[in-house]
Write a structure and sequence with these properties.
This protein is an all-alpha fold. Helix content is 66%, strand content 1%. The protein has a domain at 129-301.
Amino acid sequence: MITNRKSFLPTIRKIAWAFFLVSLPVTSFPFFPSGIGGDTLVRPLAVYPLLLLVVLVTLPRLAKRPLPSTFLPLLVFILVCLASTSMAVLQGIEPTLGVSLAPRALRTLVTLAIGIAIYFTVVLWPESIEDLRFSLRWLYAGFGLALFWGTLQAVYVIRFIPAWFDLLSRAQEYISYQTLFTTRISGLTYEPNWFAEQISFLLLPWLLGAVLSGYSVFRWRWHWLTVEWLLLAWALFVLPFTYSRAGLLIMLVVIFFGVVFFRQRRKVVLTDRTKVIKTIGVRLITGTSVVVILAGFIYFAGANNPFFARLWEYWQQQPYTSFSRQLKGYVEYMGFGPRFFYLETAYRIYEDYPVLGIGLGNYAFYFEEYLPIRSLATMPEVLRLLVPEPGRDRLITTKNFPVRLLAETGLLGTATFAAFVIAVLGCSLYLQFSPGIDSRYWSTAGFLGLLAFTLVAFSFDSFAIPNMWVVFGLITAAAHVQRKNSHQPDQVRVY
């Protein structure tokens, strides 16, 4: 009986892992217990298989395996967060919008614990190159469903059909507690921006890395055409219909840098200056051409969307004065004012609490006290958050991950998290100099993933969104597997 149970465990682990990866695109699952965040915006469906994986995979392997060096700065960051948040709870700050500080602190620490559990699990589950390939296949399967659902939504964005929209809206109620938008697609997520960030951050680096390096985790291939090529084309078609400014910008930047720096070509001898200059020129032209073509498609897709068309209509409508005045007017016209307002408020908090910050999740409790002296008449978004309507009383957040770290964890927390990111970068560097096409692929995808994180960090602020943890975890896991499979006893451990 014991032998039979043991034989079933690998299968159960695989099923739970596949379900975890497939469910990643669902970020606001409506059937979520309040004890683990059921009354928050971020409700990842992946938490359900994660709980099983933590018991069957993460905890047993944490006890048996030597831990990658990336765990060290992350553990120090956790200690800083605990110290900062504990000190804030002891201060007895007044409640905001009916929310007291202690429950808020506990909820935020739970979201951090979920993120850490995701990272540890993603790092420790793969034990071989085949496990990594298996992981990508199921990640693609999940996003295949998300892209399919997004494509169905794009139908009513291109031409609104009330009956079709109502049908999808009823189905969406079982996927997300947020209703669909009539003019934008949101896939399986809470809102269009989340879907765009998923595609550009959690999916694009792996697909683009595969296309640029000629790598595939699938057996099917027709000449140069692979499943990754098809998925990449599909993702680039769907993404513009989110009309997410941040998501589309990240996509363009990642593709440009990917084509310029990681496009697979024959090696050029660095001493031959003519060939080097020619190669750089060809790559820059190719990268620019690809971006121009994609930007043209984005312009075509967004021409009929008044919200998105504001990106270029402002410059067509305004008479020329001075560039600085036009730029200021453009920022206000595009509604970027509140983001800078949140940022400035967070920085003012950091100036008074530079070492440990004010504790995780406590930005809202200090917001009114540290507001910059400025008229709010042009920022209705801020006014709605300060004086909310009944049923819309959600706490203010920074909407900016680095600034949140500064305000809520201070220099110590920000520095330790930066050290963790640098350690993940070290994993990509290690893979870059390791032999084999698998290592080169994971290195390329890792660099692109870190580039996407650098950009997307300025538009999100939640620890519970799986994107960051999954990307960092897969990069670390690839380095972990590479070192494990290396037969060089004197291999330097840099991950």
